[in-house]
């Protein structure tokens, strides 16, 4: 495990606990790595509700509630898909926050996108924040760990805004 990413996950868990808030995650290109980092933190069970890894569009639609029209028009790698994934997992888990990651880890492109293109989103009571990442596609592991770190940072910044 990358120490910096683990420390970021530990900070996310700490602030969620402090504010008595919960999180659920929906992942695609990170393949469960976001859940792995979060669940590596002792005491996470008080804040972590659910994690879903969904590589197929069928699961994004049937389990996470991403609209078929979104997937048909924009594809699995898009800001709107990331947004709907985060909102869907939040709703499914009845969590305070839903976090999603979708993109291209590499080494090959997908849906006409180059490796390193990733969208992350955090859905909460006050709406959904989405961020596009253009990660240097050094290798698959690097893209995945950078995506996780950025998703955790977006979660931390969003949770900090809660009174």
Uncertain runs: none
Q: Specify the overall morphology.
A: globular
How many beta-strand segments? 5
The domain count comes to: 1
Overview in brief:
The chain is α/β, with parallel strands linked by helices. It has helices at 3-18, 33-39, 57-62, 68-74, 79-93, 140-160; strands spanning 23-27, 48-53, 97-103, 117-124, 127-134. It contains six helices and five strands; from the N terminus they run H-E-H-E-H-H-H-E-E-E-H.
Walk me through what this model shows.
This protein has helices at residues 3-18, 33-39, 57-62, 68-74, 79-93, 140-160; strands at residues 23-27, 48-53, 97-103, 117-124, 127-134. It starts with a helix and ends with a helix. The chain has a five-stranded mixed β-sheet with strand order 2-1-3-4-5, sandwiched between helices. With 163 residues, it is an alpha/beta fold. The radius of gyration is 14 Å and the shape is globular. The protein has one domain: Maf protein (Alpha-Beta Complex). The longest helix has 21 residues, at 140-160. The chain contains six helices and five strands, in the order αβαβαααβββα. Helix 1 packs parallel to helix 6.
Provide tags for this entry:
163 residues, alpha/beta, Maf protein, five-stranded mixed sheet, 5 strands, 21% strand
Can you lay out the helices and strands and say which pair or pack?
Blueprint: H1 3-18, E1 23-27, H2 33-39, E2 48-53, H3 57-62, H4 68-74, H5 79-93, E3 97-103, E4 117-124, E5 127-134, H6 140-160
Parallel strand pairs: 1-2, 1-3
Antiparallel strand pairs: 3-4, 4-5
């Amino acid at each position: 495990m990358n120490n910096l990413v683990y420390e970021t996950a530990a900070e996310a868990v700490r602030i969620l606990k402090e504010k008595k808030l919960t999180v659920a995650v929906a992942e695609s290109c990170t393949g469960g790595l976001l859940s792995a980092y979060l669940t590596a933190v002792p005491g996470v069970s008080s804040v972590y509700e659910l994690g879903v890894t969904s590589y197929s569009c069928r699961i994004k639609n049937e389990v996470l509630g991403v609209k078929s029209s979104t997937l048909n028009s924009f594809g699995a790698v898009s800001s709107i898909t990331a947004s709907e994934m985060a909102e869907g997992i939040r709703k499914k888990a009845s969590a305070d926050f839903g976090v999603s990651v979708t993109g291209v880890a590499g080494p090959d492109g997908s849906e006409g996108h180059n490796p390193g293109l990733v969208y992350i989103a955090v859905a909460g009571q006050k709406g959904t924040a989405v961020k596009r990442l253009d990660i240097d596609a050094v290798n698959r592991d690097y893209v995945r760990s950078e995506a996780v770190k950025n998703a955790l940072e977006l979660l931390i910044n969003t949770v900090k805004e809660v009174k």
